[in-house]
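Here is an idea for our session: we take a single protein and study its fold together. Which protein we use is up to you, so please pick one and set it down. Once you have written the record down, we can walk along the chain together:
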Amino acid sequence: MYQNSYNKNWYAMTDAVVVQTLCASLKQMRLNKNISQEELAEQCGLSRITISRMESGKAINLLTMVQVMRALGKLDLLNYLNEEPEISPLQVMEERSKYRKKASPSK
């Protein structure tokens, strides 16, 4: 049965399972593009062993993940991690109070 990856309960998973799931997703992305581990390794500038270890669920560093995602054309997935700072309503009111509300009378 096909499980939609958007409905995973990431918080219920251990960290190791999260890593394994992400690595399996990267492997599936590679397979969907019909690229061998060796070809992906060449595109990333990594060794085939590194790709193999990653796909078997071994922990990888963030740089390796970015290199693989770039080679797979999936860097746009990182947009979900890019969070803008929130401005509180109080800060908005304080900023607005600094703006001039009336023109000064002419002399």
